[in-house]
Amino acid sequence: HHGANHPVQDLDSGEVMITSQNHGFAVDERNLPDTLRATHRSLFDGSLQGVHRTDCPAFSFHGHPEASPGPHDVAPLFDHFIELIEAARGGLRQSAT
Is position 78 within any domain? Predict the structure, then answer.
């Protein structure tokens, strides 16, 4: 995927965000270990676009959320990142939701 205006769906909320992409590879969801769960999927080709660790406070998004092609489409990714930092600062172990 290359360019802006790539629709990606949040699998938890069902919401669609418009993202900026620049990658030539994708993770095969069938090969995910038990410690990763799928969180986002491309609506262009169904490829995996995001994962969340189930055993520690970490996640990944396969795109460029900092590019913000939609008005505030990817803001929840940054919000979640801040939540994980704040939970770690408080000595809490964030559960994967």
Answer: yes
| pLDDT digit string (tens) for the chain, length 97 residues | 666 789 999 999 999 999 888 777 889 999 999 999 999 999 999 999 999 999 999 999 988 777 665 567 888 888 999 999 999 888 655 554 5
- 49: domain range? 2-89
CATH of the domain at 64: 3.40.50.880
Buried b (16+ CB within 10 A) or exposed e, 21-31: beeeeebeeee
Alpha carbon distance 55, 58 (integer Å): 9
